[in-house]
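Re: the 394-residue chain
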Amino acid sequence: MTAFKDQPPRWCIDIIDTFRGRDAQSPQRIAALTQRLAESGEILEKDRAAADVASTGGPASLTTFVPPLILASNGIRVPKIGVPGRPAGVIDTLGTLPGYKTALSRAELQDAIRASGFGNTLSTGVFAPEDSVLFRARQQLGMQSVPALVIASLLSKKLAAGLTRVVFDVRTMVGGNFGQNTAEAHANIQLLKETAALVGVTAYCVVTDGQVPSQPMVGRAEALRGLLALLDYSASPWLERHFVSCTALTDFAQARSTDEQPDREKMRAVLDLHLQVQGAKGLSAAEEYLEEVERTHQTALLYAPAGGHLSWDMAQLRAAVVSNQSAEIPANGRFPDTCGVELFCGTGARVDAGDPVARVRGKNSAILRKALEAVGLSLTVTAPNHKVNDGGSI
């Protein structure tokens, strides 16, 4: 999403000014804003057999990628209307593939849902267009973490999608959109649930620690590679643990708990059909794209500067990728994918000096040098007797 050439529209500034104070954080007022944003575009009919898993934002998670495939493979319809993620959300990651259409009409979204169980579109133009404009204004003015505006943005897209049941992966981290710690997150969750109830949505919220990487793939090609590895049973143990967490989120979305494991063959079939319906060549498009990235991009390893317990600064790690990732969407509609990181170990892992801890990717040598330096700044190694919280390792 591009910034406005000048100031954002006056109505956006007025809304931000109204809701930035704590005295404006009332469920009734947020519900009214939610309705306004949703009603600025098309709204699908309510579908009580549909569900979705959404996120409040943060790097190093596949919780918006894996659950739609699990749900759709279980016969639950998933209409997903969203904004681009940075460094990697589901719409922009799939939007790197040739032919994949990211802006659907009402009829196209419904066709995708009917055909594969999963439809995926941006909220620009057709669905909740005012939310898209307001989201850009919040980005430009540094107002992405205003709780009332986060809630209205999340829920407006769910209303536009006709959803009545949604699970939110609430990630807490310094600079996070929905709380820097658990206490802040729980206060915002209460506000979200009360607002959701007023607009006819049942919201389930699960708090995850965004201060540590929950899985190793950070970037658009990396997220896609991780997703395919999960579907092919070739993922690392760390990524497999993340798959278990994603599966647990779908239990809330399906309003049931089961010991039955997701059928990955069915999930793979859903993704293959979904990609075809939205204009790509199916899974072959994803596989060919990853081969192209492997062939044309450059990579370098990042090594531990000392021995001890490793930790990642997630805000810095996100910035390392985002600062090298163009926010522009080219005229052909494909999202750019210039940089990414694969972590070899998570926060809390014990490393020795010189151990490889990450693989950094850049579209060219200049981007790679800049990204490698920035990712290095997100890494800290402390003495062995000062262990930090464990975040996983491959």
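The two ends are 34 Å apart (CA to CA).
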